[in-house]
Amino acid sequence: MTSHRAWGRLNVALWRARVSTRMSPSTRASDKPFLAVLAATAVSLIVALQVIFLKAPVEASMGIVQKIFYFHVPAAYGMYIGAFVCFLGSAGYLARGTARSDAFAKAGAEVAVTMGMMVLITGPLWAAKAWGRYWTWDPRLTTSMLSVLVYVAYVVLRAFTGDGEAERKFAAALGVLGAANLPIIHYSVQKWGGQHPKVISTGGGGLRHPDMKLALTLGFVTFTLLAITLVWHRTRLHLLAGRVDDLEQEAIELGLAGDG
Amino acid sequence: MGEGQLTTQALPPTSAVSIIAAAPPSVASAETVTPPAPSGVPASPEARSTEFRAVEGGSEMQSGTALLTEAYAAIWLCAFALLFAGVRRMKKLDQRIDALAEEVARSRKKE
Question: By a Cβ cutoff of 8 Å, what residues of chain B touch chain A?
């Protein structure tokens, strides 16, 4: 026998979940900060494109292909943001075991993979022109690819295994250990040399023209906002999915819905 | 090069030979072997109309504009792949919520 109180609770929860999936500015006050960040990302992207393609000068020896740099380096920075978020969420999950930490870690890993793919595609396209070949086993390239593969493993693990406590803990351990590679990527050029350019790390003296500096700064701002927007969106999505799972379970326990 | 010639003129012929032999290969060969003409030298206008010459690894094998466009497209594809996956997941969640709400409404009517 289903109690009226349980029905009422389930109805309210369903209404809340439905509002979350059909997002609009007027529906929820908590959507407004997210929409503000989304708008800031869009504006920043438009300004960055304007400066990169129309204002920043063409580099003397490499030509127009050097402009890949203004996406490639900020995308690598975005990958660091995603990986750091995954580390924080994973450590939080191991410490407290909350669904929010788990969703945060999952979102961070997905953003790290997306940004990492951007880095691994744009880098070789630049290298094709600058080095005459797409790939070389340079320390920074190798460690970057390794890091992307760690987060691909995380995402695959979460997608194709169950969502139980053991899987979550295993993924959280991977999220914490995967972050260990990030400082190695950053310092690999200084420690082991290699062909990878050191335009920013050598005291920032590699970008002499002010418009080149402006283009790179805008690239960093845009990709930081993009990473924040994507992490936020994915975290909300994972939290909502978890809530719907709980509601279905509750409905089954109340005898309202079948197991399928 | 000029200094080397002055030194060899001041020394006996045997010493000059030994200096050339002891010099690094690049210096020795520079004095004895004429370097080949660079392959990238453009042909004369007359030759261009009668023959095409291939250059291995020329600087214009890859168009910078094409590579930049590909990189730019790849960035958008990666970002949109994640957004598209998110929208698809949101739709599925919406369907599950609708099905659950229908189930609740039907059970309530029965009661």
Answer: 57, 61-62, 64-65, 67-68, 70-72, 74-75, 78-79, 81-83, 86, 89-90, 93-94, 96-101, 103-104, 107-108, 111
One-letter amino acid at A19 equals V
Q: Do A241 and B57 touch (CB under 8 A)?
A: no
Domain segments of chain B: what residues?
Answer: 84-111
Instruction: Give residue B45's pLDDT band: very low, low, confident or very high (50, 70, 90).
Output: low
Average pLDDT over residues A133-150: 91
CA B73, CA B61: separation in Å to the nearest integer?
21
- Counting Cβ atoms within 10 Å, is residue A21 exposed (0-12), middle (13-18) or buried (19+)? buried
pLDDT at A223: 95
Residues 6+ apart with CB under 8 A from A250: A6, A10, A13
Encode burial over A182-213: b for 16+ CB neighbours within 10 A, e otherwise.
bebbeebbeeeebebbeeeeeeeeebeeeebe
Mean pLDDT computed over A215-231: 95
8 Å CB contact of A67 and B68: yes
Q: Measured between beta carbons, which residues in chain A are less than 8 angstroms from residue B81? A: 114
- What is the three-class DSSP state of B78? helix
Domain span at residue A45 reads 2-253
Which whole number is the average pLDDT over A156-162?
Answer: 90
A-chain residue closest to B91, CA distance? A21
Task: Name chain A contacts of B100, Cβ cutoff 8 Å.
Answer: 14, 244, 247-248, 251, 256-257
Predicted local distance difference test score (pLDDT) of residue A205 = 55
CB contact under 8 A, A18 and B94: yes
pTM of the complete model beyond 0.80: no
Instruction: Tell me the per-residue pLDDT of B52-109, one tens digit each, with 9 for 90 and over.
Output: 777 665 556 678 888 888 988 999 899 889 988 988 988 898 888 888 888 877 777 7
> Which residues have a Cβ under 8 Å from the Cβ of A59 and sit 6 or more positions away?
A66
Torsions phi, psi of A47, nearest 5?
-65, -45
Spatial contact of A103 and A239, defined as CB atoms under 8 Å apart: yes
Number of domains in chain A: 1
**Structure tokens, A5:** 């109180």
